[in-house]
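Per your request, structure below.
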C-alpha cells in the first residue's frame, strides 16, 4: 500500500468527503487520478489539492445517473491517461423517508445515483479493465446495505443493491483478472452526513455515540480501506463487502453512512 505509482484511478463523487480523501491519498502514493463529480466547485477544490501534491489529474463534471455521460467519461479517462487500473464508484446522495411516504420521483432520483451510478460506472469501465487483463473496482455501499433502518427506504434499497452487484460482478469478472469489492462504512464525518442528519453539535454528538468506538469515521479512514482492497496486499480478495463501522454492526442497534 506504500505506492500506487504508475497506476491510474478513476473516482466518482470526488468533489468532497470520501471521494476527495481517496483522490488525495492516491495522489500522495503516486497514482494518476481522474476525478468526477456533479459539483464543479467541489471538483475544482479536489483538483487544486492534487495539483499541490504534484499528482497528474484530470477532471470532468459527470452525473453518474446519466449512463451516456459516464460512458463518455470512461473513454476520456483512457484517452487522457492511456489506461485505467482502479475504478471507485463512490458518488452518492442521501434522502430519508419511509416506504409509504417517499414519492416515486424521490425514490427514482436516489436509486439513479446510488445504485444505477454504480452499474453505469462498472459497465463503462469494464471493457477497458478487461482489455488490460487486470484491474480493480471498489464500490461504496454502507452498513445500510447490510441492515434495515426505518425511514431510509430508498437508501437501504440502493446500498443493498450495491452489495449485490458487487458480489455478482466479482464472480463474472474473475476470469478476466478483475477484482470487485465494496466498502460498507458506518457514519462518516462528511458533508453528505451533515446535510442528511443536521449540523448542530447535539446531532454530531449523537452520531458519534452511535458507534462503539465513540466517534464517526474520518473520510481518510474509509479511503485507506479502499486502498487496501485495490492493493496487491488484497490480491486474493474479491466479492467482499468490507465493513468499516467502528463496531456499529457488531451487536444490536443501527445507524449508517
Amino acid at each position: 500500500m506504500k505506492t500506487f505509482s504508475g497506476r491510474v484511478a478513476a473516482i466518482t463523487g470526488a468533489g468532497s468527503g470520501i471521494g476527495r480523501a481517496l483522490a488525495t491519498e492516491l495522489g500522495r502514493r503516486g497514482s494518476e487520478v481522474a476525478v468526477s463529480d456533479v459539483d464543479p466547485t467541489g471538483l475544482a477544490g479536489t483538483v487544486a489539492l492534487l495539483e499541490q501534491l504534484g499528482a497528474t489529474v484530470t477532471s470532468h463534471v459527470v452525473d453518474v445517473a446519466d449512463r451516456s455521460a459516464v460512458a463518455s467519461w470512461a473513454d476520456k479517462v483512457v484517452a487522457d491517461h492511456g489506461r485505467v487500473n482502479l475504478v471507485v464508484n463512490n458518488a452518492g446522495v442521501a434522502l430519508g423517508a419511509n416506504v409509504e411516504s417517499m414519492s416515486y420521483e424521490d425514490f427514482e432520483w436516489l436509486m439513479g445515483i446510488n445504485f444505477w451510478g454504480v452499474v453505469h460506472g462498472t459497465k463503462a469501465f469494464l471493457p477497458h479493465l478487461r482489455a488490460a487483463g487486470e484491474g480493480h473496482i471498489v464500490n461504496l455501499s454502507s452498513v445500510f446495505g447490510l441492515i434495515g433502518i426505518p425511514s431510509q427506504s430508498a437508501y437501504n434499497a440502493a446500498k443493498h443493491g450495491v452489495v449485490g452487484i458487487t458480489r455478482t460482478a466479482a464472480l463474472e469478472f474473475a476470469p478476466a483478472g478483475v477484482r470487485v469489492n465494496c466498502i460498507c462504512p458506518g457514519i462518516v464525518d462528511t458533508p453528505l452526513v451533515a446535510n442528511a442528519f443536521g449540523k448542530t453539535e447535539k446531532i454530531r454528538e449523537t452520531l458519534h455515540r452511535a458507534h462503539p468506538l465513540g466517534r464517526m469515521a474520518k473520510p481518510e479512514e474509509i479511503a485507506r480501506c479502499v486502498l487496501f482492497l485495490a492493493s496487491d496486499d488484497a490480491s486474493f480478495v474479491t466479492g467482499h463487502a468490507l465493513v468499516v463501522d467502528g463496531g456499529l454492526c457488531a451487536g444490536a442497534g443501527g445507524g449508517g453512512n
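The domain at 8-185+218-247 is CATH 3.40.50.720 (Rossmann fold).

Regards,
D.
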